[in-house]
Every structure is written in C-alpha cells, then in structure tokens.
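User: Please predict structures.

Assistant: First:
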Amino acid sequence: MKAPAGSALWLLKHEVRMLFFNSGYGSKKGAATRGLSKKAIALWAVITLAIHAAAYFMLSKLPDGTMQIPHLLIMGLTGVYAALASLMLAQGLKASVEVLFERGDMDLLLSSPLSSRGILIVRLAGIVIGIAGVFLFFLTPFAHIGLLLGHYRWLGIYPVVLATATVAASLSMLGTLGLVRLFGVRRTRVVAQVLGALSGAMFFLLSQVFANSSGGFRAKVGAWFAPMLAPGATFGPDSQVWLPGQAVLGDPRALLAFSLVAIAMFALTVRFTHRFFVHGVQQAVSLVRAAAAPAGGQRYQFGRSLTHVIIVKEWRLIARDPQLISQVMLQLLYMLPLFFVLIFKGGTQVAGIAAGLTFLAGSLTAALAWVIMSAEDAPDLLHASPSSMHTIRRAKLAAVTMPALALVSVPMLWVLARDPRAAMLMCATVVASVTTSALIAMWCGRPAARGDFKKRSKGNLLSNTLETLNGFAWSGLTYLLLMAGGETRFPGWMLLVAALLFAATIALLLAAWILRRRED
C-alpha cells in the first residue's frame, strides 16, 4: 500500500526502513532498498527453526491446554516478564536518545510542513516497533507451537509484547525528556545511556547475587516470602502481582488491562510531552557550547612526555562519548557477580572466578583496543607527525591495557590476602590475556568509525575470532592451573590440557602476527 507523501503512515514507513538499515543485516549494496542479504535470510531462517524446535520441546511437556493452569507456571512467567520488561526499557532509553539527539534529522522534520505532534507520534511508534520486533521474533514461536499443540492461550504473547513495548517506549520518552529538563541535552545523553545499561542488567545482577549467596541467606529469604505466597496473602494466587503471567497465557481480563494501560500511556505521553518534545529537540539542534577561556589566559604545559599525552588523550575521548561509556559500563556490570561469588563463597570458587575475570579482562581490552586503535579519528595526522610510530603504538597499548588491569586488581588483592599463590597465578594469566588481546587487536584491526562500536563484531571476523579464542584459551589455562594447585599431585591430564592451551595461546598470537594488517 502506497502512503501519501507527508502522511503519518508515509513517515512511519521511513522509520521502519531506518530501523532495518541501522540493524546492520541488510545487503552490502543498499540495505535500505534491496532488503536482507542471502546470508542474513539463511541465518534468520535457521534461528527461527531452532527457536520453534526449542518451543516444541518445552511446550510438549505441558498438560492439555484445557486443563487448569498451574500457579507455579504463572509465577515463572511473571518473573520472565519482569526481566524482559527491564530489557525493553533499556532498549527504549537508547532508542529515545538516538531518535531525539543522534540521528540528526529532527531540525529538518520540524521545519517541514509536517505536524510536530504527528512527528512525535511517529517517532514514538517507531520506538515501539523497534522494541517489539526483537522480542516478537524470539517469543512468538511459543505462541505458534502452543496453537499447534492445543495451548491456544499462548497467543497472548502477541498483545502482551506489543503492550509492554508501548509502555516501555512511553516511559523511555518521558524519562529522556525529563532528564533534558533536569540536566540539559549534553548530560542527558550520558545519563540516559548509563540508565539504559543499568536497567538492562538489573535483573541479571539481582539473580546472580541471590544464586551465589550462602545457603542460610537463601533459606531466610524463602522463609520470609513463604507466608506471603499463601492463598489470600499479599502475593497469593489471586494477587494482581501475577497479572503479567496470566496475560501471557491469554487471560481476557489481564489482556484487556494490558491493552488499556498501553493505549493510555501512549496517548498521555503524546499529549503532555508534545510541547517539551519540540523545545528539547530545538535545544539539542541549537546547542553550541564553546569552552570558557581559562582565567589568566591560555597556559601550556610542556613537562609531560608523549606517552602520557597520548594516554590522557585517548581516555578523554572515551569519557566524552556516552555510547562508549554505556557499552563499556554494561560489560563491567557483568563482572560484579564474580565479586559477589568471591565474597560469599571464598576460596572454593577462586579457580572459576579467576577464569571468568581473565576472560572478561581480555574482552574489555579488546573492546578498548577497537576504540583506541581501529577507530582512530586522525591516523594520517599521526603518520605525518615527527614522532615515531613505535612510540605512539606503545602509548596506545598502555592506554588499552591499563583500565582492565586496574579493575581486575581489586579482586586480585582480595585473593592475595587469602591465597598468595593463587593470586600470583591469577595475576600472570590476566596480564597475559590482556596483553595478547591488545596485540591481536593492534595487528589485525581494521580502520573503522567510532560510531560503529555496536557493529564491531561484524566488521572484522579474523580479529574477533582470534580475540575470542585467545580469551577462552587463557581462561581455561587459568582454571586448570588453580585447580591443579589445590591437588597434592599435579594430575597428568591437567598437565597435558594446560600445555595444549598454552600452546594454543602462542599459536593464536603467532597467527595474528603473520596475518597482521600491513600498512603502506
């Protein structure tokens, strides 16, 4: 259906095309016009079949759809819904910042004959489609298989996902515009990205804290919650807390409540934020901020070395980029469960914790190396400078490796106070993992734009593969060495596997050097 130019449907079709184009799954020659590439179609087809197969395996074990639904299933679905809702909110916050401040077309739209209210409606609807599309792809196979097996109630997944995406998009837009009022446009970009990372990781972190706590603590929590789950209690079977689980299973009253809340949230968001939406966008477009002149005139400091200047420069560039901050922070958040395990369970889990920290430190180093080395904004200027490129590369390597080593030093000090030998082994493997990850990224990295940080995994298959294998090899070696350290006699099979893993790390580093990108 061809929509008239200038209509809301015409603008919405453009929003959908932009969502598809930014997803990175289009063909290389004109993703917005030629659709999915053949490889992407094949990949998504395989993933779709795999999800349907998993859904069939899970739902085939349920009783007939006409039977009474167990309350335990409703509780479990409510917990899953809460986790997915937090992910939707995180995705909505990032999308709101992007469509308001980073796409760069809002000034053109507001100066066009199009209604500003219509622009807000379309942008909000585009965020809803972007959020719902991902979750519908992964969750609707359960509705399809449920219908095939007679569990027609699972069709409630469709309206629940759409309603939740609408509420998440509305809350995200309200939150983003509220942050603009409180902090201004510049700080809002950073704060919204950080809040998005926190909301997405919140349920994962809470679940890991509870799972890795002591058995006595879990027993106390269970005893405290047990009376609340009894019939007639606060969280009993008839409580409205379990409404999301009932809606997923197709309860008509729950679905009606979800739909009404979603429609009301969308309408209220458009009605009460329309004027401030225009004001906030105009503030972002017209914002020109010049650095204030220092008191007493410009002062120059020539006492710093070239290495120090490069390190500080790279760290400042990262600190000024809100997207990079949120992405790196999200990666660091997933290190927190390892610290909780270390505190609550102590030495019994040191080997596993050390292996996890080794892998995460290497992956964090690889991410920073991509930003600092591959996404260098002025490579020609560096090559034309009178400084030696070897000196510049060494300084960049230091800027890449120091943050990961500084973060890992905190848990290593904890281990050092309890098991100095394990701490020394852990220190050696972490330093080796960080160093080799940085070298692989420096040798095999390709020039890229800093804005493509999210898509870095698709740009250089060789570098990503070598970095991942290197991380697994060093983490496995760390685990074996620390496990063997607790044995009275070093087992032969551990010695053999450890030797193979160490040889693999050397081979990967050698392969990266042989396949390194040679500069003109």
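Second:
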Amino acid sequence: MKYKLLAASILATMSTSAISATYQLTELSSLDEAKHNYVKDVSESGNIIGVANGIYNLPIDVSYIDFGDNVIESAYREREKYFKNIDKEITFTLDDIEKNNAAATNPDAHSFMLSFLSAQANNSEYQKLANIVGYHVLNGEAQEQVLFDVASVDYDGLTRSVSNNYNAVAEDGVTVGWGSAPYEKTSFLPEGESEEETRFVRDFISRGIVVSPSGLNVPLVPEYAEFGGLSSTNDIVKTNTGYIVVGQVSTGIPVDRQENIDDNCDGEDEPVSVCIENLYRSTSSRLFDTRAVKWTLDTNLNITKTEPLGLGLTPEDDDGFAFISNALAVNSNGIVAGYSDIRDNNRSSTIRSLPVYYKDGNVVEMLNQEDDWTGGKAVAINNNNTIVGYGIKRIDGSDRQKFFYHDVASNSTVFPTDFFNSSSSVANDINDNGYIVGEGETDLFNVGARRREGFLYKIGEDAITNINDLLPCYEADGETRYGYVVAEAKVINNKNEIFGVATKTVEKTDSLGGVVRDINGEIEYESIAVPVKLSPINGTIDSCSAPETETYERQSSSSPWYTLLLLPLVGLRRILR
C-alpha cells in the first residue's frame, strides 16, 4: 500500500483528479426528527437498527415551575451573561416562557430550558427529558421504535423521559434492547409540611425488552424485581426453535446497600423511588447484584428457559457490596461473551471488571492480569468462536483501551498493533472471515480529547487500516474534498460490508430544527453523525497528495521510531477532509 508524503507547498500543488477507492460509502436512512444518527446493528439478511440523539422539539412542561424561584432566576442571569459575552442581545424573558411555553417563544428560550432541566437531572422536582431514541429501517426508511415510553398527559406526544438502548437484531428482524420506565408527574407531601410538592417518579430504572417486527413487545422481568430491579438485553440470535437472547438481571441487593435503603428510603422526605435512584447513582450503578443471563425463547417469543451464566469470582461472607456480570454477545453455538467482576490476583480486596466468556457453566477470563490489564469488555463473537473486545491498561500516564481478539479453541488472546502506542482502540464486531472492525484514536499529538476514526483489521495480517484510507479523496467532480469521515465502524457482515457512523458538515440547526445564523446573518455550519454502509468495490488505494511528492511504504504502527516524525504530514490528509 503506497502513501505519498505531503510537501510544504501542498496547498499550492494539490492535484484535483479523483482518486480510486476500495470501498463505496452509502448514507443510510435516518430520523429527520434528530440531529445525529448512529447504526447499532445489522443482520446478515440486511435488517438495520440504530439510535438517534439531538431530538428536535423536545416537549417542555412549564405548568408546575415557579419562575420566581432563585434556581431558575440564577440560571437566567447566567444565560444573560453568556449572550452579552458573544455580543448578542437576549431574545426572551422568564415571563415569556411562563406565558407562552419555551418552544412557542423562540429557539433560544427552548435551548435555555433544555439546559436548565439538564442541570436539574438529579432533582426530582423537575421534569425529566431523554435525548436518545431507537429506530429501525423498514423498506429503506428509518422509523422510530418505541420501547417503554407512553403518551404524555401534560402535552402532545410521548413523554420523552425514557432511556432507549436499542442493541441487536436477528435475521428475521426480531430486535432486543433495554430502557427505563417513563417518568410520571405526581404530588408528594413531605412529613411535617402542609403543602404538596411536584415530584417526578418512575417504576424502574432498566428493563430488557424483545420486539417483533409485527409490534409484539415482550419485557424481560428480572429475577429480583424489588424497587423495580434491573434487566437489560444486549444480543439475539435466531435458532431453529426460536431465539437466544443474552443480557443481565438483578438478583438481589447486597447487605451494605440494603442498610443504606433502610436508613434513608423511608418515604418521609421524598418518594421511595426517588431515594432508590439517588442511591443507584451514588453507588455508581452498583445498588443491585446483577448477573449475566441467557434466555431461550420460542418462535412466539415465549420464554422457555432462563439460564444464569455466573460470576467470575466467589463472594465472601464479609463482602457486603454488589457484584456484577453481564452478557453482551452470543453466537449460533451458544457461547456468550461479556464481562464480569474478577478479584485482583495480588489484592483480593480489589475488584476488576474484565472481559470473560461463558461456556458450559464456566466463566472464563481472557486477559492476563500480570500484564497490567485493569478492565475491559468482550463485545462480539463470530460463529468460529473468536471473540473481540478491549482491555484497559495504564499507558503514558493515562488509562487506554486496546482492542483484542481471543480464540476459544486455543485459549489465546492477541492484542494487534493499532494506530500508535498510546492510541485507545476498541473492537466492535468480527465476521466469520476473520475481519474485525472498530475505532481508534488517530491524532497522536493531541493531549486532550482525541479524534477517533474507524478501522479494519484482518486476523493473520499484522496491519490495521484506517477505513477512511479506503474511501475516495474527492467527490465525483474531482475537485471537492470527500465529505465524509468514518468515525466508528460498528458492524461487518460476511460479505465484508461495513456499517458504521460517519461525520459530515451541514448547516447548523437549533433545538427546534431551524437553521442557525450568526450575528451577521450568515448561516453557521456544524459536523453531524450519520449512519453509513461501506461496500467493497474493485479499486485501488492511494493518498490524497500531489503526484510528484515522495512515497513510502506503510508499515502500520510497527514502523521504526523515526516514522513518527512523518505523522503530522500524513495526518494532514485527515484534516483536509
């Protein structure tokens, strides 16, 4: 694979001829009602599901808000300061919002209220809004898939208060995911008070669900459902007799957490469900003991068997805290991949969450703790029993993710060389041909948040390929730089077609979906996420630089140390995109 270095005069000598590629990118259907859209899973038969965020026109209920309260008045003063700093006159008052509602006032008022409610996310006295929805693609058109939301009694449409995690699709279009119960606005009288207060409460934090193409929804209730319990569904495989679904369920509440509940959640000062959610957040989601689980369902989606998959350690009598295991993927052979709590080899009091697979009643670790791996997950498995995921270890002073593949038959784990030593990389999927897709950090010299781009890796070939290097350099006119950058490679099927997420530049939109203009009336632009399909084509790979510049042979990240000096030049290709 030949790449041409960029000369200092690159901008003056740039060739305007279109360059060949080995993959063709097609943008997939997405929800018009949202700014960003992401592929989540695609079956071999072509069923596509995704999630979208940045939902336009989120409904805001102002009927219960005291606009004279110091909390919202202080937030408004801060917004006034912000407008002043950007030399813009504020376009709304709190009185406007109270009388007209936020969306009816203007986009600035709507954006302010969304920001205010977000800041009060852990305060049960204010409305709860969620900004992510699931969707499936039917006959080429994206359509929202409602999991647990219901029609609001306070405004038109759904409450838009639920979590939506839409995760996997089977060959016939049956899907799985998990979400939360919708919030309900209710009145609560604290002990010793004479006036009721408005509170927002819900029945459960997380519940798995199976959804058929005909619209049949089957919630998977956890074994332990006290205080709502927890369950999630993460993957599904169609079998000759029905389906295998894997995920996680709550199995109880540990001693220490039960003491917290007994001491704090008496229902006197706040609703019990609010207290439970506060404890759930304060314990980093470790209020419940949870275990990986495999469900067997028949063709009518009736559960015929529930099989707990275990835990990678044995709890001791004095362990009063929660232990967690989870199942994220399953193949047609019934082998399950995920993660579990594991005791540190050197300090039994230290618990690590590490990649594991579940087979024949055993929980099998894949990473060697002696190599300083402190965390990670196994996220996908093909039908040849090869698992992919990522581990976490300390590199150059920071925790970094590194992708791996593990062969169950040989019990061997390999960490391929990725973009560079301190690059974080994660694998998302593997097909039966041994091709792995994922994303990794590509900007070596950025000390802050690093840009991620999709990669393709073939087992047996020690070379990682940036997927963007397999795409055209220019649009069809041969002059305009190619408009997409693949940020995430999520799925690869057995045709070696890749599905993922790309970014592109479009006119900027506000929270109501209108085009944004600056103080001079000029249209502003922004980068958004769109779902894409990449199909293999007969073509060649070349760089986007001028033809007269020098060439070198790419050697992946195993290049000699001096090739690091060339990275700023090679990276310019990404910037110019």
